[in-house]
Write a structure and sequence with these properties.
single chain; about 500 residues; alpha+beta; six-stranded mixed beta sheet; five-stranded antiparallel beta sheet; disordered N terminus; disordered C terminus
Amino acid sequence: MSAQLQLPYSTTVPAASRPTSPFTAPTCPADVTASAAAGRALERRARLTAKLAKLAATGQLPPLARQIAGLGGCAHPIRLTGHRTRLDTATGEILDHFDSSRLPAGELLVRCGNRRATRCPACSTVYRYDTYQLIAAGLRGGKTVPASVAAHPRVFATLTAPGFGPVHNQPDTGRCHCGHSHPDDDPLLGTPLDPERYDYAGAVLWNAHAPALWARFTTHLRREIAKAAGLTQRTLRDHATLSYAKVAEYQKRGQVHFHAVIRLDGPTGPTSTPPAWASVQLLDHAVRAAAARTRVHHEGEPPKQPQPARDISASQPENSDRAGRLVFRFGRQIDVRAIRGTDFTGSGPVTERHVAGYIAKYATKGAETTTGTLDHRLRLLAELHKYDITDHARRMIHTAWHLATNRRHAHLRLRQWAHMLGFRGHFSTRTRRYSTTLAHLRAERTAWRTGRPETQTPTPASAEKPYLNRSWNVRVEQVSRRGDLPVVRA
């Protein structure tokens, strides 16, 4: 026979029963390990084939295939087991009863909904598309937002981190400080020229305070808008509303910076016309002034006595105020551009289409995509040697882990966020009146799917949000990435 069946065991005669020969090669442990692994894989395949054959014989294979197809390619679906009963609150009549044991798989499979592209490509793609629609609706209307919002003043702002030491980069003119020109895929980009002199502690602490910096920036931004309009902060809400949507992006050096769409509306939000004094120029000036004024102290508290701006000259986090506390500020590179309402680009302002696509692209990326670090938390620092990450990311993780031992940084929970290089904020946030919500977009998608003919096994809305007139007994199990032990979440 030309083709032979691959058996999980060796068909050769054992070496002990054969005469010894000086030309006989000794058995390699690696070959034995590979043979055992191949045998286990063959056994698993045989068991799976037997299960599929049993399902096909009982007629349950097509429903199971439809249920799995409804996941849309989710890599790590959540398995729900239990029942749901819907009652009429007035009469107590049972309107509907759902039991997961009646499904082909014996459990309800739900998408994990992870936004990280490294964890689940299918769910992250859906999240990116939803983010695009959310941002675009706040720029040109649609999805419960009126089209007149396209005429409101809006800018695209980028707030960066300060420098913590020279790194390999791609300057617009000339070469890098190392004397070479780096291509786009050069792994040296973003790494320090001299790692021994690079301020890793300052870089990690700045990432940890970046969410507080953004919150303080929005406060100063409202103050600057009111000041430019000749109003007080209390009366500003009667004339205009500040709406924004921002996303956090990791630079190759491991620092977080923010991209934000900032818009001025009328007093009731996007449905009202902004006042006559609201303009793109006023918004541009307010963003730059607010970013220059924003600073956060290490304890998260302002100084007891206000200090003049000249007392804190630089933007490095090593600087401290008179009380000896660290001060964190944004970098000096602040970019503010007006947003046009066309799809044509050039050297002028950016467009609605490109802004929405740019923000949606970074909504599913984290430090693991840009700087080559991890996409999950570390339980022990000793686990780090198992992963193939860059030396720069490894040193930042080590720095965050060891800074957590200092009682001064205990409130930052740096060990919990060491894999994120200290950043512990939300990647994507927006104001309530900016546009629609992700929940609304998901509800529209669910309604469209359930309304299609020949629908697959529908995911009940109660699996996402239980209502008061439904009794639940649900157990959620999701296989952990750390091993085969399931993680049970109530």
